Amino acid sequence: MLKASRKSKLPTRPEWAEKISELREQLRLNQTAFGHELQSSAMAVSRWERGAQEPPSHSYIEIGNLAGDPRCWYFWGRAGLRSEDVMKVMPGMQKRLRQAHTHDFEIVSAGSGNRKLTEKLQLVAVPLLKTVAAAHGEKGDDIPFLHDAPVESMIAAPRDWCPHPASTSCLRVRGLSMTPTIGDGYIVAVDSSQTDRSRLDGKIVIAWKKDKGLTVSRFRRYDHTETLQPENPQYESITLGHRNDKWKIVAKVLWWIGRAP
Prior knowledge:
There is one protein chain. Mean pLDDT is 80; it is low at 4-8 and 88-118. Helix 3 (31-37) packs across helix 4 and helix 5 packs antiparallel against helix 6. The protein has helices at 2-8, 15-26, 31-37, 42-50, 57-67, 72-78, 83-89, and strands at residues 97-99, 102-105, 121-134, 151-158, 168-174, 187-191, 204-209, 213-222, 225-229, 238-240, 248-257. Strands 1, 2, 3, 4, 5, 6, 7, 8, 9, 10 and 11 form an eleven-stranded mixed beta sheet that branches. The chain has one domain (56-257): Umud Fragment, subunit A. It is built from seven helices and eleven strands.
């Protein structure tokens, strides 16, 4: 009886910790490889599985993308997303997830009436962060790591628009320095795994500096000089230093969407 009493007092892991551990084992990944898939560390995965710390909402969404149907719905629910919300951003969904990172949908082509597309469209669930990248001269959110940002909602995007689903997220833009390409209030999709400056010349990026926060700009390299250039000529470019360079490239912009005026 004494042994039974002691056993009953042993701490138990939360359900979410059990499910994360079960998923990792079913995928036959160690904690390092599992964390790599989610852009997280093995230490973070260990804390999740022990129940010491619950994953942030963006990690839950990525775990859901990795899990597949039907387990994705549990993890997305932990992120605060309801199945009704997912349905709203994925209209006409007939079949749910069939493999990691992607969704198979049967959709109706715009303007085609009841005629359905003959091929399945693969979509990725991309988290829309409660985060703003500002124009030149304005201050954006002070978040040097996008994975630390809270999630506002979710956007469905074609699979080929998201080369690295686990590191893809969306955020809002404020300001006019990137007009007419990217306007005030636009939503940009970014890939936080693409930060190598040697491969970003001419690309639109999200940069961060402590006193400026997140900034959206076009990255340019000229010999030994690197700059952040606006699209709008009314704004000034930013020259990046070398030794004391406080600017950090946090993501490459993949695509953007915005409402018509």
